[in-house]
Inverse folding.
């Protein structure tokens, strides 16, 4: 797959899935724009590492995906956006009657509304280029619910609806819009929860992984960021030109049940 000459903007890409997809797209030759809400030396260093490793242009642009105007500015500052990966996301777990309103608002803003703003800003650039790919990182939780994750599940179900709509609106324009629905991925976010959960349940860390975290994932294996990057690269290929307005699951069988 040769994505040279294409520019990919990946929101929330200083760690985990976003970083993995950025690396995969850069390996396929795309220039990449990394993003998060911080402005640390290590954020810019990540971009330099990717540029050096893959011989592409890589930049880091600070923009807070909870703010619509900053989402749109990210696309404007990127200059080009042939591939848009809406990946930034956060989580909060609480029963709905105790769910803090500010957490609800932040999750809906970062996990759902940011994709509205970035997509709205990126489509005119894709139309001018005559080619485009929108890839929304949803979740198995876009297709199935779990208790105590009302905001996350609402946002992830919502982004699947937006994906279908953008797919229809761009169907005749050489632009596709699709979602990837991962099951559990061992990102720093998930890793950090294991020691505390082990203490809470009086289990070993291995037992926590199998019986608590991967309880819903029939394969009992984590999805890897490299596997998700492979799906993103496929969605950017000409082989996927007629794949639009849909989602690809990588969840070890979770949503088969
Ligand atoms: P992560 O915490 O490792 O990465 C999240 C990224 O988003 C980080 O770079 C973080 O800095 C950035 N971010 C957070 N708030 C932001 C903001 N306001 N503005 C800009 N950037 C912001 O998490 P991850 O596990 O890699 O998750 C990435 C995406 O994948 C999320 O949308 C998440 O819902 C989804 N997902 C994760 C899993 C999993 O098991 N890890 C499963 C399914 C879906």
């Amino acid at each position: 797959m040769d994505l040279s000459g294409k520019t990919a903007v990946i929101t929330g890409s200083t760690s985990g899935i976003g970083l993995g997809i950025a690396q995969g797209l850069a390996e396929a030759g795309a220039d990449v724009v990394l993003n998060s809400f911080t402005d640390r030396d290590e954020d810019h260093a990540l971009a330099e590492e990717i540029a050096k490793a893959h011989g592409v242009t890589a930049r880091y642009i600070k923009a807070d995906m909870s703010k619509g105007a900053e989402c749109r500015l990210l696309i404007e500052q990127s200059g080009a956006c042939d591939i848009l990966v809406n990946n930034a996301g956060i989580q909060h777990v609480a029963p709905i009657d105790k769910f803090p309103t500010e957490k609800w608002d932040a999750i809906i803003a970062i996990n759902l509304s940011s994709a509205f703003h970035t997509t709205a800003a990126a489509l005119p650039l894709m139309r001018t280029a005559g080619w485009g790919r929108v890839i929304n990182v949803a979740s198995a939780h876009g297709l199935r619910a779990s208790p105590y994750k009302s905001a996350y599940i609402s946002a992830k179900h919502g982004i699947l609806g937006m994906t279908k709509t953008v797919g229809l609106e761009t169907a005749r324009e050489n632009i596709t819009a699709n979602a990837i629905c991962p099951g559990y991925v061992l990102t720093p976010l998930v890793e950090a929860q294991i020691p505390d959960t082990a203490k809470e349940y009086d289990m070993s860390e291995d037992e926590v992984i199998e019986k608590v975290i991967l309880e819903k994932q029939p394969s009992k294996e984590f999805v890897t960021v490299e596997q998700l990057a492979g799906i993103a690269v496929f969605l950017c290929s000409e082989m996927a030109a007629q794949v639009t307005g849909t989602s690809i699951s990588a969840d070890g069988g979770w949503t088969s049940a």
About this structure: The radius of gyration is 18 Å.
